Amino acid sequence: MEELVEIVVDGRSLTVSKSANVLQALRDHGIDIPALCYYPALEAYASCGLCMVEIWSNAIWNPRHACLLEVEDGLQITTVTPRLQRLRSWAAKILLRGRPFHNSEAEDLLLKLVQGETADGQVLSGSTTEGCILCGLCIRMCRKIGKNRLTYLGRGKNLRIGLVPGEGNKATCGNCSACRDICPMGFISPDAEHAFKARLYKE
Ligand code: SF4
Ligand code: FES
User: Fold this and answer.
1) Alpha-carbon torsion 22, 24, 25, 31, what sign?
2) Which domains, from first to last, does the chain contain?
3) What predicted TM-score, i.e. pTM, was given to this entire model?
4) What atom in ligand 2 is closest to the CA of residue 91?
5) How confident is the model at residue 44 (pLDDT cuts 50, 70, 90)?
6) Which positions ≥6 away from 117 have C-beta within 8 Å?
7) What pLDDT is attached to residue 124?
8) Do the beta carbons of residue 31 and residue 57 sit within 8 Å?
9) Ligand 1 atom 6: the closest Cα is on which residue?
10) Nearest CA, atom 2, ligand 1
11) For residue 129, which atom of ligand 1 is closest to its CA?
12) I need a labelling partner for 21 at 20 to 30 A (CA). Which of 36, 54, 186, 190 fits?
């Protein structure tokens, strides 16, 4: 049987499933926390940095990634503070370096989080992964369905997503579209082969 616990969110008591992480628990109660690298069926990876909340511990409020935070009885959470606004804005600025994106809804969310600071387009440039925020959802989904054909390649400024190097990648990719369907930025179009090889990640 599902174990339920009580948490306090913005001063309101909520009954949530103990098996959920905080982001999922908040979403289940209709509390909207921005998040671009989270998908319920996949292990959280905390790469977008948007889902910040504050929790009360050791007599102070501490910022945490809601997607990585386990629900526990009595947990006190705040979802709206000036500090959270700053942290989300900062994370959004970094992600916006990958502009332009194919998913305008996701891009609008990021622009809203930085509150117009990017209007001149000056601050946010210089990404080598145009259109992709390196959230890794495509890799995690590809692993989850047992194909495991995608991986991070390169390091630092050259970090990118690509097909696992080696013989026979074309044959085993399978074009199942699972990565395309989960990509929050609309990058994988028309398919993985095109997105990761032909368009951006050509060596
Ligand atoms: S291609 Fe899409 S899903 Fe994959 S890392 Fe980039 S933004 Fe995330
Ligand atoms: S959803 Fe938590 S860091 Fe992206």
Assistant:
1) positive
2) 4-80 (3.10.20.740), 82-127 (no CATH), 137-199 (no CATH)
3) 0.89
4) 3
5) very high
6) 89, 93, 123
7) 56
8) no
9) 132
10) 183
11) 6
12) 186
